[in-house]
Structures are given as structure tokens and as C-alpha cells.
């Protein structure tokens, strides 16, 4: 909130009142960024805050004014009165609820803070406040730039609502490149000791497009040049990173607002911004000055992107020349497969190159766990199924399994090898005893158990580790038990295959004997 004409001289003989509120149960925070009222007595020129129970002020002249007021109410009336005066900027203040004790004003600059990393809350409405910013979101901003205005330029917050910003202070640069973004013009800047960047969620990468399949348009401009060749400004030329002319519409009428450029991303994605240019050709001074965005998903109707506060169709500021790129961010982001750019105003003819910014939609928690399982799964597995707390991994069919052990990929420690050989030897002895007569069960039951052992060789059921124990080898058993679950994952395949192959041979031997 500012006085009229701020930062110019406020008008004579005016009385202005406005009531500001925050949700009930919250307290109001007021921060005065600037106060320049000519009167020294506050008789006719002053700023006053009143609530149902308290009064703060009046403030004027050179008196000491608190930079921040934490009120015991959720509602206050701001009264500004002026008489006859010659000079004075008036006032600038910001307000928020007590949820945001780190509230700052639109006039704060990065060089006002010494910390290399900090977080602040920007109020709404800082975009049009007088004050320069230099730099861009990629390389950073000069430390003399207004913080909140730079945050709007970077697409970190929306001017309509403000928001939290994270700031990182870094070593300065020799030159800062300016660009128009989100209705804020960043200027070129010279050398500075420090610069700052904003923390982000990383969802601002360029979304790749295939021009021949993913970009369509309502019409295209075609003409014959001086050499008799046909020149076509097709939608396939609308990718910003491509050289040459852009897409241009076939109709150059200023009243024709039905032209559009449609982009199919192939799947639903999170779209956080768009970069546009004009024709990029100096002898064709064509560009789009403003546009709106439509979006939809499969089997749904086109929707218009709307503003956060007024819920009305949002018109984005486009290009001011045929050459320089302009960026606009979507806060909140668009989540859709199809988007459509619909020009509203343009210079001479609609001409457009675009680049969409965003990222893939984050997978759900379950999908994330699946990815983790796959990354730790043996290369021999071809699928996985999650069932509550257990994961069953299906093996490749037996006919695709290798017939020999690859000594390059299976590196078995000497101790484990000895244990395996000993275990196989004991197993053979027990098998021979079984042929003579097994008092604990039939041979058929033993065969069934053998095959059950290798039915799902890669499955892990809770604590189902592969262990071998000896009646008189405690020390050897302890060494084997030291194998961790990760090591078990490395050796379990070879152990299971050896036992499976041995088991199959024993089965065949029994059949031959019978």
C-alpha cells in the first residue's frame, strides 16, 4: 500500500482511508518501508492506524517511526491526510498475518543482508514499485536489485499474492544480462562484488518438442520470394532453439483472434513457464504482444488459464520486438498434455517461437519404491510386484538361464566357496542315506521340497536369507552369518543355480535307477 503518486509528491488536501484485514484469529503485521510527510506537527499531514481498541500514530515529519508494528488485532484502518505542502513522497507499507514474521517490504535489496543464505516473505504488489533490478534467473541478479521485484521476474512468486523466497548470496559477475519476464524488465548491469540467486524446486527445464509431430497451428503463412521459391512459415518452425524464421499465421488482420499454436507433449506434464520470441528475422518485424493460454488432457475440453485472485482469463505480456526472448511463468503451474497459445495482440503479423518450461510429474510414493527395488534388483529379474511389505521378483524362465557360471561377473570369496563345496558334500551324504531309507519322510517329499527351494530363487520373504549350518562348525557358521543382505544379493543367484542344477541331476539319477 502506498500514498497516491508514490514515489512522487503526494497530492494536497486529501483524506484517504482503507481498512485492511487478515483471517480472524491472526494478528496483523505492518512494516513501513518509507515515510516522507512534510509536516512536523502532524496537524494536517499524517499517517494513522486505528483498530477497535488501539491507535498507532499519528506519524509524520522527522519523528522516529517504528519499522514494524505487530498489532493485537486482525483488522486496522489506515488513514492518510494531507494539507498544503511542497514536497514529500508520502508512505509505503506492507502487511501480512502473523504467520509471516519474516515479512519484508518491496524496497528491500539483497545488499541489505549479510547472510549467504536466508528466507523472507514478499508481499503482493511489488512488481510496479519504482526501482531497478539487473540480471536474470539463470545467472543471478546484482545485489543492488530489489529482492521481491527480482523474485517476480524470476517466476519464484506471483505478484498477485506474493510468497516465500529463498535467497543464496554468491560472488558477483562482471556483467549482468537483462531480459523481460513476467511483466518486469531487468536491465543490463555492471560489475558487482555480490550477486544473488533464488532457490527453486528444479521444475524449469526445457520440455523437448518434435516439430513435425507435436506442434500444430490454425494456419500458416506462405508466399513466393523474388527467386520464385515458395516460403512457408510452418508450425514446425516454432521451436525457439531452432534457427531460421518462426511460425507465422496466414491471416494478418488485427481483429482476427482465432489463430492458435498447439503443442502436444505426448503425456501429461507439469508446465511452469513459457519463453517466446517473434519472427527472429530483421526484415520481418513480426511479433506477438500479448496472448492467453488454453490447456487440456485426453478426452477433456479446453480450459483457459486464469488469474489467481480474480479468477478471470489471464493475459500474458508478450514480446516488444521480433528478436529478444520473453519469459512468463505459470503460478500455479499447468498440468496437462496439450497446451494452446492464442495471440491477442500483435505487431504487423502473428509470428511466434516458443519453448515450454517444466518437468515430468513426480511419481507417487509407491512408484518411487518400485524404482528403488529395481535399482537393487539383479539383472536377471524381469518384473516385480508389490504386496504390502513383501516384494516378489519373477525370474527369467529356466531355458534362458546360462548353462555355465561366468567367473567375470560372479566373484566368490574363497571362504564361501569352501563352505559351498562342504555343503554340497553333506547334501550328497544325506541323499545317499535317504536312498537306504529315510525315517523322517519319503523320497517323494524330499523331491518336492527341493523344487520348492528354487521355485522363486530371487524372492526375499522377510528374513529368508540363504544360510548353511554345520553341527560341529560354529566358527564357520559365524563367518557365513556375517554376510550382509547386500552381499547375499550378489551371491544368492550363483548358490541357487548350483543347488538347482545339482538337484536336477539327482532327480534324473533317481529316475534312471528306478
From TrEMBL:
GO terms for cellular component: plasma membrane. GO terms for molecular function: signaling receptor activity. InterPro entries: CUB_dom, FA58C, Galactose-bd-like_sf, LCCL, LCCL_sf, Neuropilin_MCO_CoagFactor, Sperma_CUB_dom_sf. Residues 203-359 form the F5/8 type C domain. PROSITE patterns: CUB, FA58C_1, FA58C_3, LCCL. SMART domains: CUB, FA58C, LCCL. The keyword NAD does not apply. The keyword Transmembrane helix applies. Residues 1-98 form the CUB domain. This is Discoidin, CUB and LCCL domain-containing protein 1-like. It comes from Neophocaena asiaeorientalis asiaeorientalis. The gene is LOC112407409.
Amino acid at each position: 500500500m502506498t500514498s497516491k503518486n508514490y514515489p512522487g509528491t503526494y497530492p494536497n488536501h486529501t483524506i484517504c482511508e482503507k481498512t485492511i484485514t487478515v483471517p480472524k484469529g491472526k494478528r496483523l503485521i505492518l512494516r513501513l518501508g518509507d515515510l516522507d510527510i512534510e509536516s512536523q506537527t502532524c496537524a494536517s499531514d499524517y499517517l494513522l492506524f486505528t483498530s477497535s481498541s488501539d491507535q498507532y500514530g499519528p506519524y509524520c515529519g522527522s519523528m522516529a517511526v517504528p519499522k514494524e508494528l505487530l498489532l493485537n488485532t486482525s483488522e486496522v484502518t489506515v488513514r492518510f491526510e494531507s494539507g498544503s505542502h511542497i514536497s514529500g513522497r508520502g508512505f509505503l507499507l506492507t502487511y501480512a498475518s502473523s504467520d509471516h514474521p519474516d515479512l519484508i517490504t518491496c524496497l528491500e535489496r539483497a545488499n541489505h543482508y549479510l547472510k549467504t543464505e536466508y528466507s523472507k516473505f514478499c508481499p503482493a504488489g511489488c512488481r510496479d514499485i519504482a526501482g531497478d533490478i539487473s540480471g536474470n534467473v539463470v545467472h543471478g541478479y546484482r545485489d543492488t536489485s530489489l529482492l521481491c521485484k527480482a523474485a517476480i521476474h524470476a517466476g519464484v512468486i506471483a505478484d498477485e499474492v506474493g510468497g516465500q523466497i529463498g535467497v543464496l548470496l554468491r560472488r558477483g559477475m562482471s556483467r549482468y544480462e537483462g531480459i523481460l519476464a513476467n511483466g518486469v524488465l531487468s536491465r543490463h548491469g555492471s560489475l558487482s562484488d555480490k550477486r544473488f540467486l533464488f532457490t527453486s524446486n528444479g521444475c524449469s527445464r526445457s520440455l523437448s518438442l518434435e516439430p513435425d509431430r507435436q506442434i500444430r497451428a490454425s494456419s500458416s503463412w506462405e508466399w513466393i520470394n523474388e527467386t520464385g521459391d515458395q516460403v512457408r512459415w510452418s508450425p514446425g518452425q516454432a521451436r525457439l532453439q531452432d534457427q531460421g524464421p518462426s511460425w507465422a499465421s496466414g491471416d494478418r488482420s488485427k481483429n482476427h483472434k482465432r489463430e492458435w499454436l498447439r503443442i502436444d507433449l505426448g503425456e501429461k506434464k507439469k508446465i511452469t513457464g513459457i519463453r517466446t520470441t517473434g519472427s527472429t528475422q530483421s526484415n520481418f518485424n513480426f511479433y506477438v504482444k500479448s496472448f492467453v493460454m488454453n490447456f487440456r488432457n485426453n478426452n477433456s475440453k479446453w480450459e483457459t488459464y486464469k488469474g489467481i485472485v480474480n479468477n478471470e482469463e489471464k493475459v500474458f505480456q508478450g514480446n516488444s520486438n521480433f528478436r529478444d526472448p520473453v519469459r512468463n511463468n505459470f503460478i500455479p503451474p499447468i498440468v496437462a498434455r496439450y497446451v494452446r497459445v492464442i495471440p491477442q495482440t500483435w505487431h504487423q503479423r502473428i509470428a511466434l517461437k516458443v519453448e515450454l518450461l517444466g518437468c515430468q510429474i513426480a511419481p507417487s510414493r509407491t512408484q518411487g519404491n518400485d524404482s528403488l527395488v529395481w535399482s537393487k534388483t539383479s539383472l536377471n529379474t524381469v518384473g516385480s510386484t508389490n504386496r504390502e511389505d513383501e516384494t516378489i521378483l519373477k525370474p527369467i524362465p529356466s531355458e534362458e538361464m546360462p548353462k555355465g557360471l561366468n567367473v567375470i561377473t560372479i566373484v566368490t570369496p574363497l571362504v564361501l566357496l569352501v563352505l559351498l563345496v562342504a555343503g554340497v558334500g553333506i547334501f550328497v551324504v544325506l541323499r545317499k542315506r535317504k536312498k537306504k531309507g529315510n525315517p523322517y519322510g519319503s523320497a517323494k517329499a524330499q523331491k518336492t521340497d527341493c523344487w520348492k527351494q528354487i521355485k522363486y530363487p530371487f524372492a526375499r520373504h522377510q528374513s529368508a536369507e540363504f544360510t548353511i549350518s554345520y553341527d560341529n562348525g560354529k566358527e564357520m557358521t559365524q563367518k557365513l552369518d556375517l554376510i550382509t543382505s547386500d552381499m547375499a544379493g550378489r551371491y544368492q543367484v550363483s548358490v541357487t543355480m548350483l543347488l538347482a542344477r545339482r538337484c536336477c541331476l539327482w532327480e534324473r539319477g533317481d529316475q534312471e535307477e528306478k
